Amino acid sequence: MTGTTAALHRPGTVGEATRVLAELGDADLLAGGTDLVPALRAGTRRPRAIVALRRVLELRTRGVGADGIVVGAGVTYAELAGWAPAPGLAATARAVGSAQIRNAGTVGGALGSANPRGDLLTFLTAADAQVLTCSARRGPRTVPLPDFLLAGRRRGELVTAVRIPPTHGPQVFLKIGGRQAAYPALVSCALVVDRADGRVGCAFGGVAATPPRARAAEQFALAEIDWSAVPTGARAQALARRFGELVTEAARSAAAQLPEGPRDPADYRWHAVGVLAARALARCLAAPAGAEGPAAEGRGGGTVAGS
Amino acid sequence: MTAALPEPGRAGIGASSLRPDGPAKVTGTFPYAGDLALPGMLHARTLRSPHPRARIVGIDTSAALRVPGVAAVVTAADVPGVATYGLIGLDQPVFAATEARYAGEPVAAVAAVDARAARRALAAIQVDYEPLPPVTDPEAAMAPGAAPLHPDSPGYGPGGDHAGSGHPNIYRQIDIRHGDDPDLVGDVVVEDTYVFGMQDQAFLAPEAALITPAADGGIDMVTATQWLHSDREQIAACLGLPEELTRLTLGGVGGAFGGREDVTLQIHGALLALATGAPVRIAYDRVESFLGHPHRHPARMWFRHSATRDGELVAVQARVILDGGAYASSSVAVIGNAVTHAAGPYRVRAAHLYGASVRTNNPPCGAMRGFGVPQVTFGHEAQMDRLADALGMDPVELRARNALKAGDVLPMGVPIPGPMPARELVELVAARPLPPPLDPASPGVASGLALPGGRPAGADPARVRRGVGYALGIKNLLFSEGADDSSAARARLELGPDGVPRAWLHTACAEVGQGFVTIAGQIARTELAVEQIVLAPADTAVGSAGSTSASRQTWMSGGAVRGACAAVADRLLARVARALGLPPSVVEAPRRVLSLRDGEIIGPEVGARIPLAEALADGPVEAEYTHHHRRTERLDERGQGDAHVAYAAAAHRAVVDVDLDLGLVRVVSLALAQDCGTVLNPLSLTGQVEGGTAQGLGLAVMEELVTVDGVVVNPTFHDYLLPTIADVPDLDFVAVTYPQLDAPYGVKGVGEAPTGTATPAIVAAIRAAVGRDLRRVPVRPADLVMPGPTASAGAASPGGAETIGEAETIGGEDGHAG
């Protein structure tokens, strides 16, 4: 806002929105405004034009199909928080910020801002999410989330939705921050298990510029865990511990580390994502097969979920 | 908490009257200073130095003045009166002129037709800075031979007599030597160094003022402040206006906690109003608020405590260094409090207490709830636990054994005035029932809400350990060291437009949330036997009420309201006595036979029973009264003297759960026993001690304004975390109510004492849970789980008795980073 006055555009459809973006060439997108409004007030963003998306009802849809779950970019955290078909997403959404932030903030906003500590990015990275975009010139495009985060939104492009491939198994999202509730994540960790093929997706946030996958830990889980005869007791504990160690190693060696803060030294972050990963795996191991879904969520700290 | 609440605005002292402004605040209609607006007003914004230290080579405002909609730009060159201001010494420039001394220091201000044009103009001001290396380490700033950071600064204190500290960067140093042998040492010795981070007052309604230029050449200002008359004095001097033309009215204040004791935007806004001849609204946003007011002093402290083998404290030595930042603010008074409280609420045979507040290029620090006492309370209470450990004694028993009682001699060589139930408090709090142990089957634990880190952290209950900790402290009440911080009040008993008698009260007491508006009404109802109270707006048309700080307004302005009301009652009763034809001896002292009761004047012996309305038919009765507290003394060169008017004590017990793997802390329970004097409003008292406790909790585990090379890096509520309702447990509060005999109704101030003790009690509980020596607040998760200097015990510092007081003796090691 400092220096210039931004023109406000209020399209009603995705088509209109992409046309406006194509004409403007350069505009900021406004959905919940939880990142843009503070940036405007602080003067760190000074757009010539703002395209407000609240009236684009197409962006506010969500659904489940054979190729997975599709969530519109305009869906808010509050809407996701109670959404039974996507328990992992729902658990993540419940952990975001305060009630006010959850009411305003959207999925598209999380992708657009790409805050490296963003809760949703960690979960979506673990879940192999794809980003669906649309532009007037090139039409629709589907991009793997890591590629989208690396390259950012293209000029004239609108994020319309994210798609999560179907999995069958527990999903856990854990995070820590400075107080008991309503806090930005210091670090976070997400685990998405597919019992069908034994794959475990593990991502962690708050360490690097985008959430890395812990590939060695994922390989370890794939090799060591038979999800048809889930280990228990000391064996489960040992697996979780080793899994956490591998995630700590992944964090330590991750590229593009975030700068160390006076209150969050890097070695603590590496340690903490390992602890969270071990806890997350322990929960997945303890989650009874077939009992997944919203009902399983909430036990012992509450973000075990299945889909 | 479902107890029936009394009807608002009916009761006298002792009842839980409700706040008259409560409904408006809760429903969102209360007008805070930032909500004020006038037609045609201009919007002002402030330009701040991005550099912690820079020479200002030049400022070019011509481009800013050409921005459409801009009405005026002011800089140091436009200050017509005194160029500097300050609470105690005038060392802070209205705008930085030749050198910016901290990051965030105002350099210019603009007024424009709207906020956007004002911001655009700020961006157009060209300031030519020549950055200089900032001095951000107080030990370096006070080292012998260190270059002065503000060579033009005057001395501090009344008449500048705090000057002559011997070093240009030391605001004030104090060296208290107590006992026959100040360097006496007992059999068992513990010593260590402690670090205390910078807390911010973080009041919710940012700074704001609305200034209207008046036809008489003066100004009318509505602003949110703690002390109208002190603001007026500083504003008038800088504007070159007589004080009577500088009229201030209190705007709605949304919290203060010390952060509004200093002038911030008032002079800037007034300069712009006078320059433009138009009303000016000047206001800060959250980031500016964090940069704009002084914070709580960060501290580095060394303590050595020694005791006999059976636990009698023998000697305390301390060295307390407060980082005052770039300008003096109240640093000279804060260090006075810190050093005189450094031995804590304990009897000591010998003490050697040294302290200094130091100028650096960090953000200025000044008043915040506790005013120098929370720093040393964190230190001396950590030491008492270590001493208990070394002695193999129970920490409560050690405290109880050494607790001060009324008449015990303080390190300043004077007896502590009573009541002083310190021992009773720590024993009371230790006897409160403990919370039940963590139950994995409970809903709170099962959901994770009741585990450290809350639900998303997923703590394993088997890896959560509980700890219990105690702290005992004292806090001085009212202004100290010779100050006569009197409070004035005017009262009038009159008939309202409906013919019903009512009391009209006028004071300059700043209501900042503490509840004076409630208490004043209760006092007037008690003294004048009426129900209706009219509280005139607080402004400078009446005498000074002094500052709303130092736990003083219930005592001081409460005393003034009581005195004014009593004088009104005396005059009315005398008038009635005269009308009744009673003898002159009764007219002179009418309370011999007449009294006010329930809206009537009664005198059974003379057969009088006159409704108040009838007695007031001849006209209203008005009186003014100024309340003074007992005189105190300045400290002499050995730190001896009767410096403080009175004290209040508090004891906290904290119970915490710690996630042993992640270092996350949940405060499970807090119990408080506090020395409260007579309670005028139990509900209001509870609010004060709960708030003070929560602020101490914030400092213990989360609140820290972090600077890197002098620049604040977290000036938002996204990054500066305050405790929420999920972080603060219910407070188990016991009020101990021995009356303070030299105070009106026997009151004591209550807002500050619990802030000092909550922090060390919580840190002690964390220590008990994890078994580490925590020497720094706020405690950070990494301090609890990562290997490093924090984990290793042992004395961190040399600082021997023979070298205490010399700048180079204590390394100022950060207890964490080492």
Summarize the structure.
The complex is a heterodimer of chains A (307) and B (818). Chain A has helices at residues 14-24, 36-42, 77-81, 87-95, 99-104, 107-113, 119-126, 145-151, 215-224, 233-252, 266-286, and strands at 7-9, 28-30, 49-52, 62-65, 68-72, 130-135, 139-144, 157-164, 170-176, 187-194, 199-205, 304-306.
Q: Could you explain the architecture of this structure?
A:
Chain A: Keywords: FAD, Flavoprotein, Oxidoreductase. Chain A is of the alpha+beta class. Chain A has 11 helices and 12 strands. Chain A has helices at residues 14-24, 36-42, 77-81, 87-95, 99-104, 107-113, 119-126, 145-151, 215-224, 233-252, 266-286; strands at 7-9, 28-30, 49-52, 62-65, 68-72, 130-135, 139-144, 157-164, 170-176, 187-194, 199-205, 304-306. In chain A, helix 4 (87-95) runs antiparallel to helix 7. Chain B contains 19 helices and 31 strands. In chain B, strand 19 (487-495) and strand 20 form a beta hairpin. Chain B is an alpha+beta fold. Chain B starts with 21 loop residues before the first helix and ends in a 33-residue tail after the last helix. Classes of the chains: A alpha+beta (307), B alpha+beta (818). The interface between A and B is large, with 46 and 46 residues.
